[in-house]
Amino acid sequence: MIESLTVNLGARSYPIQFGVNAAAAVRAEVDALITAGRKVVVVTDRNLANAQRDTLETMFGGQPMLVLEPGEETKSLTELGRVLDFLAEHRIDRGGALFAAGGGVIGDLAGFAAASYLRGIAFYQVPTTLLSMVDSSVGGKTGINLKAGKNLVGAFHQPKGVFIGTGLLTTLPPREFAAGMAEVIKTGLLGDAALFAQLEAKTLTVESAELGAVVRRCCALKAGVVEADEHETAKEGGRALLNLGHTFGHAIEQVTGYGHYLHGEAVAIGLAAAARLSQKLGYIGAVEVARIEAVLTAHALPVKLREALPLAPLMTAMARDKKVRAGALRFVVLKSLGVAATQGDIDPKLAEESFREVGA
Ligand code: NAD
Ligand code: MG
């Protein structure tokens, strides 16, 4: 029942294991580590600890567990300090292993703690949100936020393994499931036309028999992109392609204040805007834009801003986005449904018009 996929990064390669229930596989890994004389600690959040008490007990029963407050604010210097102190209190040495059981917040924070504690200890991802299963648990980006902005401090630190049990998603709030679907749809759009067509033919829900296969497909695509450009240094394409819709999305999140839109919701509107930009550049037609919006809408995602936003701050935020190099507006555009490319020197007027068309 458990299937596996390898992220091939030479000495940093690791398996991603998939199943409806991954608890036994996690337990086996924990037991193997302990048998080898290595200590195991766990970081999770309170929502998980409440909603998945039994599963966490099966996976980690007997190991020290730090339960943090849920929410983006947890990705902070203060909470990083708590995780590091927790590791020290339990006398974790270079052979110790940290398991992150939770969404992207816990994965990013605990991963960064594992990257920096004793200059790096082993860590494992047990993602529990759709977004973390298809996106944040794979690829080795870890980090925290500063007051000045999101993800400003971090490290590349690949996990030793990723355990994905899609059965955990039954307790995830529907709005969070939809937010994860934005990254799934993004994945289809940027590199998997058949996945996009599948989502178009049949809306994916937490009950869908295809859920596990879809998650796996997203991980496979991300793994391939990461294998080719682990540290996001490619001049064109590479990991930056995973930011399709994100330049617009980040601007929306920044201008509205984080939390007003979930990240996936902002990305959904961003995908609609990126589709319109790609249309203006002559790559796709109105029919394709409509198909993209229909798939987003079918998956309970917005394609227009809930309330109009002033254009000027949105454009300023986009110019400041870290994916924008040397002043020229740089975007990930769609060449067709399933094929994305990075493109620099985009006339800001086109981006502005695209923003206006999604409600700015
Ligand atoms: P999250 O971690 O905040 O989880 C969303 C909510 O769901 C939280 O309230 C959480 O407590 C709850 N939850 C999680 N699993 C649950 C379950 N099975 N049942 C019930 N409730 C559950 O959010 P997220 O969307 O998973 O992650 C967002 C974070 O991921 C952001 O900080 C973002 O920057 C980061 N991210 C990182 C990468 C990367 O490559 N490292 C990629 C994308 C996003
Ligand atoms: Mg994202």
Automatic annotation (TrEMBL):
InterPro entries: Dehydroquinate_synthase, DHQ_synth_AroB, DHQ_synth_fam, DHQS/DOIS_N, DHQS_C. Its EC number is 4.2.3.4. NAD(+) binds at G104, V105, I106, G107, D108, T128, T129, K141, K150. SUPFAM superfamilies: Dehydroquinate synthase-like (SSF56796). Residues 66-178 form the 3-dehydroquinate synthase N-terminal domain. One of its GO terms (cellular component) is cytoplasm. Keywords: Amino-acid biosynthesis, Aromatic amino acid biosynthesis, Cobalt, Cytoplasm, Lyase, Metal-binding, NAD, Nucleotide-binding, Zinc. CDD domains: DHQS. Binds 1 divalent metal cation per subunit. Can use either Co(2+) or Zn(2+). GO terms for biological process: amino acid biosynthetic process; aromatic amino acid family biosynthetic process; chorismate biosynthetic process. Pathway: Metabolic intermediate biosynthesis; chorismate biosynthesis; chorismate from D-erythrose 4-phosphate and phosphoenolpyruvate: step 2/7. Pfam families: DHQ_synthase, DHQS_C. It is an enzyme of class 4 (lyase). Belongs to the sugar phosphate cyclases superfamily. Dehydroquinate synthase family. This is 3-dehydroquinate synthase. It comes from Rariglobus hedericola.
